[in-house]
Amino acid sequence: MTLSVTKVSVPAKRFLATLLPLALLSVPLPLVAQPANSVADDLPLEEIQTFAEVFERIKRGYVEEVDDRTLLRNAMRGMLSELDPHSAYLDEEEYQSLRESTQGEFGGIGIEVGTQNGQLVIITPIDDTPASQAGLLSRDVIVAIDGTPTESLSLQEAVNLMRGEPGSQLRISVLRAGEETPREFTLTREVIRSESVKHEMLEPGYGYLRISQFQSRTPEQARRALERMAREQPLEGLILDLRNNPGGVLQAAVGVTDLFLDQGLIVYTEGRLSDTEMSFSASPETPADDVPLVVLINSGSASAAEIVAGALQDQRRGVIMGTESFGKGSVQQIMPLGNGEGLKLTTALYYTPNGRSIQAQGIEPDVEVVRGRLEVAEGQRQIREADLDGHLSGQDAVPRERAEMSQRLREDYQLSEALNLLKALNVVDRRRR
């Protein structure tokens, strides 16, 4: 049966009348300078009429009564969700939650998620959170949250389900690449106080700086970490670990990059509005402008992490090692609304100093090294003096911390290769002198 509608009912007309004044705001001024058909071209009157008709039909015929407020909010959510995976309408709770996450404290399990091909995908688990401790991995697909299939949820709805009171439990079903049956994880929510920067000395003279995400305090935390390591011993090389870093605050990425550059462009953005076109350059004062640098990235390195890696790569400041990054090169602005709610709207794309757009492309490492583990086959290792019973110990015994670090390097092949590369760079540099 085909239903033909030639007229709009009175309720729909009233609704249409409320929309038209708003639509008129899009008409270019001055009107007298426009062609006669300009208003018709700029105002999609037929689409507005259809929208009013759909609104009326839902009000009258939907199986359950729906109030106008809910319908309008859903319409706004739909407008934004259909633009791209990162734009969203935020109610008051969602808006506050997003603000908290950029400050480094929020309640949940500690994962960054996104949508890919209609699926809810883990971009990265944040370090030292229930998600990372449970073994969730980048690129895992979340198929259900507490029994609710994620295919029926928007990105923001999924995030809301995963956040909750500390101490409460969350059950998620995860489908991992190469597996046919989803894995079940039960996690206990915590207050996620994420310190985004960690550091340690891998070996004398060789430092390790881990940034798990970019928060407003990250540049200052990274600066202090560099200063502490330099006080222990002059740095002969540094590994900057951005693996599984989902990004964060744009200005924080600029601030961290500035720690390693004393001049030159870091990143620029381009959008339709004048205030979305920005450019950031390095300042002369920097604590680590000449330390040999290796930057580790992988498929979980996204957004702000890609800004840092792309800038250091273009400026030939360090060697990028690992695997191709995620490829999120868009900028979202958080726009407050008068009712206490907000919009997260994609307003620009960012570009590396050489003009590369990372959006859907990612950063290609200079040296590709897949993640793995160094292992020695049983029976193949040669017997050494230290293996003999009653052997004499040398004067410089290996400290326990050094032994633990050696174990860590064996378990993290990419990190081990980055350290080897730093040592090789120093050998080449000394021979050139």
From TrEMBL:
GO terms for molecular function: endopeptidase activity; serine-type peptidase activity. Gene3D superfamilies: 2-enoyl-CoA Hydratase, Chain A, domain 1, 2.30.42.10, 3.30.750.44. It holds the Pfam family PDZ_6. GO terms for cellular component: outer membrane-bounded periplasmic space. Residues 1-33 form the signal peptide. InterPro entries: ClpP/crotonase-like_dom_sf, CtpA/B_N, PDZ, PDZ_6, PDZ_sf, Peptidase_S41A, Tail-specific_protease. Keywords: Hydrolase, Protease, Serine protease, Signal. It comes from the Bacteria. The keyword Signal applies. GO terms for biological process: proteolysis; signal transduction. Coiled coil: none annotated. The keyword Ribosomal protein does not apply. Residues 95-163 form the PDZ domain. Belongs to the peptidase S41A family. PANTHER family: CARBOXY-TERMINAL PROCESSING PROTEASE CTPA, TAIL-SPECIFIC PROTEASE. This is S41 family peptidase. It comes from Vreelandella andesensis.
